[in-house]
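Incident log, structure service

09:12 report received: a user says their structure output differs between two submissions of the same chain.
09:20 pulled the input from the user's history:
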Amino acid sequence: MAPQFTVIRDTTPDSLISKGAVVAMGNFDGVHLGHRAVIAAALEMGRTHGRPALALTFEPHPRRFFSPNTPQFRLTDERAKLRLLAGTGLAGAVVMTFDKARAGTSAQDFIHHELIGRLGVSGIAVGYDFHFGKGRVGSPSLLVNEAPRLGIEVDVQPHVDIDERPVSSSAIRTALAEGLLDEATTMLGAPWFITGEVIHGEKRGRDLGYPTANIRLDANCGLKHGIYAVRVGRGPERLDGVASFGRRPTFDNGAPLLEIFLFDFKGDLYGQALDCAFIGFIREELKFDSLEALIRQMDDDSARARAMLAAAPDAFPRLGAID
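09:34 re-ran on a clean worker, output below:
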């Protein structure tokens, strides 16, 4: 049985925080391969010194604080990020609230009061481009310079490249917006996924022979509208299917909705939370002149989705349990 993944927040009493942990520090949106290199360095440092390794991250994302009126397509909300972090082998996560006070904290105060004083860290792993503190003065080089005086170890990870292109959250967002799922999956190290509650829809799919589980995604979701091969998690159960994300131009051109048809499934999913992993992009969203043409296309989409999923039988993000 895996050890419990502990989440430490600003409200956690100091008496409940075990000092001496190693921390992997970052925003970790998507928990992609670059983030995983930082996490792996923290885990190795922890194993070497017999210390637990934690992620240290910020919520909301600092971009949300500094640009509250700019739409932000997050790859992972807080819960999804923590579930991915819990699946890496880390012992827990420190979630710091990013607000006006924290944005105004100097890098030196952050190091001495938060990292050393409150958490009592014994080591820090960061990516080459991670900055912190007021004015983003805090940097990997500052941590390296401070490390001997503080008596801690610091590991700075270089960027991770794929085909000579650095892996980044922004590059993954761009890939998802263009329907380039293979690129996004490669950079993430696993399929991108969302979690949402099944809601009632217009029930048109039922009349067409394709009953769907409908999920409303975040309004800022930048995923390309179109048809996808998907694998759905319902607890430990895995269900394959085909999904449409978009505005349903054949019918109402309404607000974007994710509509999932699960193969060989019968049952009521209303109100249940599902994890939906996007395995392959099939085609763009289209408008059809007749229901017959739409059904023929849906039959073809389903066949293509089955083939994609059969070629990737184990594709699904590794998620850990959190409280």
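09:41 both user submissions now match this output. Likely a transient worker issue. Closing.
09:42 reviewer note: The chain has a mean pLDDT of 95. Residues 241 and 262 are 4 Å apart (CA to CA).
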